[in-house]
Amino acid sequence: MTERAKPTSAEHAKGSLKEAIGKLTGDARIEAEGKAQKRRARPSKAGPRGD
């Protein structure tokens, strides 16, 4: 499970950085790309249930 978490964390960090750069430069497109990248990096909540 940790193997999957590392790429997700890296992608989330890249998205955060891209979003921040977009905000600093006033580039709405880059900011939106960063937000979208962060959303894609979130792990899926669907999975086996422990019931």
Automatic annotation (TrEMBL):
It comes from the Bacteria. Pfam families: CsbD. Residues 1-36 have a biased composition (Basic and acidic residues). Residues 1-51 are annotated as: Disordered. Residues 10-39 form the CsbD-like domain. Belongs to the UPF0337 (CsbD) family. This is CsbD-like domain-containing protein. It comes from Methylobacterium dankookense. The lineage of its organism: Bacteria, Pseudomonadati, Pseudomonadota, Alphaproteobacteria, Hyphomicrobiales.
